[in-house]
Amino acid sequence: MIKRILLAASLAVITQVSSAAVVMIGNPATADQLSKDQAEAIYLAKSKKLPGGMSVTVNELAAGNPLRTEFHQKVTGKSDAQLKSYWSRLVFTGKASAPSEHSSAVAMKAAVAATPGAVGYIDEADVDGSVVVLLKP
């Protein structure tokens, strides 16, 4: 009986976690909606400006974070290892500076909210008035 209760509770948690959706967020001064292609270009440093012309500041969660993995699977199509290699080349050749990394979605949201032109990604359930949703991949 206890095993069944634990199994049911575990399945409820898994279902709740898997129903969460990652969204790309921006500072409220960045009201532009983005296409998947525009988001990909921003996150791969192929575009350094938002569609409205504002310079973009890219924020990432730390490697291994499930939200980071989900976001990049949906937007850039790259794994953590591929991203590390990609960014190492860009930084080494001087073509770009690595994005700021944050240890949590809370820190990511705070950084985006505090910087005009900043973008990041968090769980859709964590969106509040301090940031705007730019893309639901």
Report on the structure:
The protein is α/β, with parallel strands linked by helices and 137 residues long. The chain has one domain: D-Maltodextrin-Binding Protein, domain 2, CATH 3.40.190.10. The chain contains 5 helices and 5 strands. Strands 3-2-4-1-5 form a 5-stranded mixed sheet, with helices on both faces. The longest helix has 17 residues, at 2-18. It is globular. It comes from Neiella litorisoli.
What's a concise summary of this model?
The chain is an alpha/beta fold and 137 residues long.
Mean pLDDT level? 87
Residue share in helices?
40-55%
Which fold name is given in CATH as the topology?
Answer: D-Maltodextrin-Binding Protein, domain 2
User: Which of globular, elongated, flat, extended, rod-shaped describes the shape?
Assistant: globular
Number of domains: 1
CATH class: Alpha Beta
- Radius of gyration over C-alpha positions, nearest whole angstrom: 17 Å
- H/E series, N to C? HEHEHHEHEE
What is the architecture at the second tier of CATH? 3-Layer(aba) Sandwich
Biggest sheet record: 5 strands, mixed
CATH superfamily: Periplasmic binding protein-like II
Q: Can you tell me the residue ranges where pLDDT is under 50 for at least 5 consecutive residues?
A: 5-17
Keywords: Signal
Protein name: Phosphate ABC transporter substrate-binding protein
